[in-house]
Amino acid sequence: MKETYRTIAGRGADEFVINKSRFIGYGAPVTTEEEALAFIEEIKTRHKDATHNVSAYVLGRDSNIQRFNDDGEPSGTAGIPALEVLKKEELRNAAVVVTRYFGGVKLGGGGLIRAYTKGAKIAIEASVIVTMEKFNLIRMGINYTAYGKIENYFMENGYIPEKVEYLETVYIDMYVKKSLSDSFLDDMKDMTSGEIDYALVEEKYLPVKDGVRWME
After folding, report:
1. Per-domain residue ranges for the chain?
2. pTM for the model
């Protein structure tokens, strides 16, 4: 099983016109088939007057579920090209719908493949793409005398605590990349002269964009 995977974290949409046919590409994050089907149905309802609403989605960190629907276009010219874009981009837990309003000029098989490939690509490009990485939620208890130094460390390194409680000591909940957890804790020990209590609360996949945790 992959330790990291790419996915869509935020929806996107874009469109283009080719030979008078209007194509609109939509991308969305989905984690279950129910979510994927609901997203597809949402777009189909929004564009119930469209000629076609072609869809594709990939689910699971190992891409174990892959589905597509040509929605009336010739077999192999619409849903499969859209699905291939998701696979080529190595996206998981992601869905696209490409809506077409026929403009009166037939595109032919090759033209349809290119159009639906482009529709899926622009949908993805308009969406927020992130890498899902494993994080550890670390709960720490530190003395007030060390807190100022640690606060500065957090700001300089882009760390944002999940929760801070000011009790007899300062309790901090922090998500840290699993790959960086050991060095992070070493830094915490250095800055507190070893006067720190900590525990690993959970391990969780969280989105990362441009090397840092992505938050909406």
Report:
1. 5-126, 133-213
2. 0.83
